[in-house]
């Protein structure tokens, strides 16, 4: 199929849909015949319940960036044209965002490598050992830099990390939760704004004061404190002596969190050394581009006493069935789908890919390299300071790391303008002060040019003069960090490349196999979509750059927001939320703001179906709402009678209901509009979770189904790579009456202009930057530029067809739990293994682990129904891959039948002892009741391209009882001899650590 070129004389190219959609032509006919329909449109008429407002088929329109249908070369050219509208300057604004050099080997072998970008959150740990080890390195990096023993695998950004620190304090408090939390006014403005906004609906009292006032006895009339968040170095650059402040807060019963710059922590005293309980920050400047504000890995580290309160993911060390050390996600009881509104936070995934980049940046440079970079950054700032002093210009403080606050009475704005004309962005702190921050990329020429803008004719101070601005002795770091051998063994390019390859080879990502994760949607991330996202014209722009410099970014966002709005049937779209869960929170906060403005602030209850994603309940709790669960009917749909009962009992309190459509059970519920009408009649709002929008695009619109607000998962429906657990983007689309309450700001952002997608928004910021994880939105923009509405309808219907094909093909082996009356599912199907388990003892987990031996990623395990597997093949998988999955599942059913017949005990079966490693099947002895070939090559043709997991089944319970969330102590190894740059140890992988422990 070829699409006519939009430009006369330009060659035509095959439509992108022919590459994105895996089942076409004769293969599609095979699928349709299997499920008993004549065409995709016939399938639509069978699957979508009567009475719902189905979109009509549309005619193709001329290809355009706004409406889709461009060829791949056209889409890349259009995105480059948008990037060319930006006017990148040399960024010295600071405020928590700094240019840096991403090592080329990391750009090529990680950020441009589908083995890293297309992997999913490591729920199946045995096939995730590479990405888990990389994230464990990140946790070790954070723990070492902060001096605190337990770090999580990443958070969304610095501002949300500060907010999470405050909510952690509230969770940890056994009594006195009504006490105040002091927020240091020296924190970055966006951190203060997001923290205050997050605390308000939770009833957490916050007070913003200069840090030094924390030690004053009369503070808040001497009342006890819940805690304080202090700046390690202030937003205006001052290095703070935190030890007496930490002691003062502890003396009043509070916890202390310190917001710190990771590069500064290589040369300044770490928070743990002064007694802090929590440390937070952003790892962005450790190798991650500016990306116009994100995605960037926020971080958090805590004391051991707080380790079970940490939000987000924790990677922990355990062992497998053979005793080999192995990694997995720790403390699984914290998962949102289990704890729901009692979860530690609503964070489901965070910024794993960017955390991995920062970890590898530290591996690439090592501790001495990071310290050298830090000293260079400080030395450049000191030379500028000396030049200013030589010109008679004062500084607000002389103790700084990388940020100067330059005193120019009444002349700050003019100086910032002079710098901008010279190609440099500085920060206007107030009418009398200019802020500038040096960074890893700042050259001597940059320093001289900026100095001239601030003080025309001034010259840079020499090194001797700069000594006047040496780091304070009392705050200088004396403890070692990054002593683990992994940060010493891979300095050469060859060693680094092989290290990255070894880790990626341990994993199963989308470049090797389909990932049929129901509810999670791992679809094709086409290479063309990431062709431009790392270009400096996009990735090198500061999030607080002046608006005239960011026209390309904002035009792209407007086009993306407009398309998402039209596709969903809403009126406005906010692109700020950086994950689906954060989109949920933003949508619920918009509902809360709307109701309060209408005098309906007493509405404090959110109805959540029993089948809903766990983040729904956790997000409701984060928005200050109570949760009531609506029961599930026998067919898997919402129990309307129970809903009526809940509305009758709580009607005046109901703020909203959170629906997922199609339902989390994988069916199109016919009563969705009835449910929406009932809630509206009771005075509530309808939130339709967009997690399953992959079945709706071009077919149904949630705004037409009665929704007032939805979020979308760009890493699901709109093809942003998931990167092993993030980045994600969770835009919020809403009806006009909620638009004013969508996220605005935060402080420091350029004000919206006419045509900007967030014009008129006044709701609280949920992220530290105006457009959240802007840096990955070019991928979703490109996806939509390549596919017009006709294509998107075909995408949705193909996804539905593929799910029904799998469901029908496996019906005799694993019946689908929920279907409609005609036996159809939506884009995913729940394979019910509970009867098998009851009859044989073989569990859904056994099947999931055995699929690894077949080289396949398992479907979603035990969600939304325990003891089941939820499969979603997506539209992008070719028929051969669908059939490979079906063949594997049928083969496993035959293995189950062996257990059922009594020929083998379940404990000794190939299923219970799966997965099998190469070491096991190649061992000298074999004492199992099945053959090596059955273990390793259960289907014909696997011998040539066999994936072997690096570990066998992991003991999660042991790891939780013996929690270890950083790399084991380096005393167990021979360390790199830095004087000769020689090493006496091997690659410090999980296997090497086994003996060390």
Automatic annotation (TrEMBL):
One of its GO terms (biological process) is glycine decarboxylation via glycine cleavage system. GO terms for cellular component: cytosol; glycine cleavage complex. Residues 19-453, 629-743 form the Glycine cleavage system P-protein N-terminal domain. Residues 745-764, 978-997 are annotated as: Disordered. It catalyses: N(6)-[(R)-lipoyl]-L-lysyl-[glycine-cleavage complex H protein] + glycine + H(+) = N(6)-[(R)-S(8)-aminomethyldihydrolipoyl]-L-lysyl-[glycine-cleavage complex H protein] + CO2. One of its GO terms (molecular function) is glycine dehydrogenase (decarboxylating) activity. Keywords: Oxidoreductase, Pyridoxal phosphate. Its EC number is 1.4.4.2. Its cofactor is pyridoxal 5'-phosphate. Residues 797-916 form the Glycine dehydrogenase C-terminal domain. The modification N6-(pyridoxal phosphate)lysine is found at residue 716. The glycine cleavage system catalyzes the degradation of glycine. The P protein binds the alpha-amino group of glycine through its pyridoxal phosphate cofactor; CO(2) is released and the remaining methylamine moiety is then transferred to the lipoamide cofactor of the H protein. The glycine cleavage system is composed of four proteins: P, T, L and H. Belongs to the GcvP family. This is glycine dehydrogenase (aminomethyl-transferring). It comes from Actinomyces howellii. The gene is gcvP.
């Amino acid at each position: 199929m070829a699409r006519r070129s939009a430009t006369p004389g330009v060659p035509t190219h095959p439509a992108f849909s022919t590459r994105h959609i895996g089942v076409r032509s004769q293969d599609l006919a095979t699928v349709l015949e299997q499920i008993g329909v004549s065409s995709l449109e016939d399938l639509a008429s069978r699957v979508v319940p009567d009475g719902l407002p189905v979109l009509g088929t549309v005619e193709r329109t001329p290809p355009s960036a706004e409406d889709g249908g461009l060829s791949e070369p056209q889409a890349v050219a259009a995105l480059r044209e948008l990037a060319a509208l930006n006017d990148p300057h040399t960024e010295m604004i600071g405020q928590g965002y700094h240019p840096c050099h991403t090592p080329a080997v990391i750009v090529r072998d990680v950020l441009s490598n589908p083995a890293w970008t297309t992997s999913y959150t490591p729920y199946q740990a045995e096939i995730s050992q590479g990405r888990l080890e990389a994230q464990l390195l990140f946790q070790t990096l954070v723990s070492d830099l902060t001096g605190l023993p337990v770090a999580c695998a990443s958070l969304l950004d610095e501002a949300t990390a500060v907010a999470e620190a405050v909510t952690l304090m509230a969770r940890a408090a056994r009594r006195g939760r009504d006490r105040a939390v002091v927020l240091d006014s020296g924190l970055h403005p966006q951190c203060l704004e997001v923290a205050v906004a997050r605390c308000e609906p939770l009833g957490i009292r916050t007070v913003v004061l200069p840090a030094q006032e924390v030690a004053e006895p009369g503070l808040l009339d001497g009342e006890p404190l819940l805690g304080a968040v202090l700046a390690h170095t202030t937003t205006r650059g001052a290095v703070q002596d935190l030890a007496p402040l930490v002691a003062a807060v502890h003396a009043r019963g509070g916890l202390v969190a310190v917001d710190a710059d990771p590069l500064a922590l290589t040369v300044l005293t770490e928070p743990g050394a002064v007694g802090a309980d929590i440390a937070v920050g952003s790892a962005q400047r450790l190798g991650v581009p500016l990306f116009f504000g994100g995605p960037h890995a926020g971080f958090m580290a805590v004391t051991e006493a707080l380790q079970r309160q940490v939000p987000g993911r924790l990677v922990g060390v355990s062992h497998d069935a053979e005793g080999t050390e192995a990694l997995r996600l720790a403390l699984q009881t914290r998962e949102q789908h289990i704890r729901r509104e009692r979860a530690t936070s609503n964070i489901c995934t965070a910024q794993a890919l960017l955390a991995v980049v920062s970890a590898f940046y530290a591996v690439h440079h090592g501790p001495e390299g990071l310290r050298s970079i830090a000293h260079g950054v400080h030395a450049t700032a000191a030379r500028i300071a000396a030049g200013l002093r030589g010109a008679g210009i004062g500084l607000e403080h002389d103790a700084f790391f990388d940020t100067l606050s330059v005193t120019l009475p009444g002349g700050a704005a003019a100086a910032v303008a002079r710098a901008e004309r010279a190609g440099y962005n500085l920060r206007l702190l107030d009418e009398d002060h200019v802020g500038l921050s040096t960074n890893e990329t700042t050259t001597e020429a940059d320093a001289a040019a900026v100095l001239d803008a601030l003080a025309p004719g001034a010259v840079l101070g020499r090194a001797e003069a700069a000594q006047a601005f040496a780091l304070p002795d009392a705050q200088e770091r004396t403890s070692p960090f990054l002593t683990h051998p992994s940060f010493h063994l891979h300095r050469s390019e060859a060693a680094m490349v092989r290290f990255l390859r070894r880790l990626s080879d341990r994993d199963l990502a989308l470049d090797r196999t389909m990932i049929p994760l129901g509810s999670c949607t791992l679809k094709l991330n086409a290479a063309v979509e990431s062709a431009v996202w790392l270009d400096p014209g996009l990735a090198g722009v500061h999030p607080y750059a002046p608006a005239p410099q960011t026209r390309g970014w904002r035009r792209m966002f407007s086009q993306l927001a407009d398309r998402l709005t039209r596709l969903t049937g809403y009126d406005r779209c906010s692109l700020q939320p950086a994950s689906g869960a954060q989109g949920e929170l933003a949508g619920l906060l918009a509902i809360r703001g709307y109701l309060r403005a209408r005098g309906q602030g007493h509405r404090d209850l959110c109805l959540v179906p029993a089948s809903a994603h766990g983040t729904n309940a956790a997000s409701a709790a984060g928005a200050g709402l109570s949760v009531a669960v609506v029961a599930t009917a026998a067919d898997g749909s919402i129990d309307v009678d129970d809903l009526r009962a809940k509305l009758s009992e709580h009607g005046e309190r109901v703020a909203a209901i959170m629906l997922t459509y199609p339902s989390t059970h994988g069916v199109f519920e016919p009563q969705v509009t009835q449910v929406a009408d009932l809630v509206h009649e009771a005075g509530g709002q309808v939130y339709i979770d967009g997690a399953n929008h992959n079945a709706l695009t071009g077919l149904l619109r949630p705004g037409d189904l009665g929704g007032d607000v939805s979020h979308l998962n760009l890493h699901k429906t709109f093809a942003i790579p998931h990167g092993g657990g993030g980045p994600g983007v969770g835009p919020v689309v809403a009806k006009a009456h909620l638009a004013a309450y969508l996220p605005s700001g935060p402080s420091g952002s350029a004000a919206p202009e006419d045509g900007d997608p967030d014009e008129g928004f006044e709701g609280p910021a949920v992220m530290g930057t105006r457009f959240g994880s802007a840096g990955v939105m070019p991928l979703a923009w490109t996806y939509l530029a390549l596919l017009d509405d006709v294509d998107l309808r075909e995408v949705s219907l193909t996804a539905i067809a593929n799910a029904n094909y799998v469901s029908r093909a496996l019906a005799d082996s694993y019946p689908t739990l929920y279907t409609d009356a005609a036996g159809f599912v939506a884009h995913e199907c729940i394979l019910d293994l509970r009867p098998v388990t009851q009859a044989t003892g073989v569990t859904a987990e056994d099947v999931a682990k055995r699929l690894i031996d077949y080289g396949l990623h398992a479907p979603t395990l035990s969600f939304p129904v325990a003891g089941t597997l939820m499969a979603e093949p997506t539209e992008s998988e070719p028929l051969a891959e669908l059939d490979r999955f079906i063949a594997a599942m049928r083969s496993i059913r035959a293995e189950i039948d062996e257990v059922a017949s009594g020929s083998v005990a379940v404990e000794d079966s190939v299923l219970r002892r799966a997965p099998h490693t190469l070491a096991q099947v190649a061992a000298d002895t074999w004492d199992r009741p099945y053959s090596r070939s059955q273990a390793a090559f259960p289907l014909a043709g696997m011998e040539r391209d066999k994936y072997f997991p690096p570990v066998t089944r992991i003991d999660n319970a042991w790891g939780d009882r013996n929690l270890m969330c950083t790399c084991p102590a380096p005393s167990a190894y021979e360390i790199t001899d830095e004087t000769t740059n020689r090493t006496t140890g091997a690659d410090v992988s999980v296997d090497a650590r086994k003996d060390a422990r």
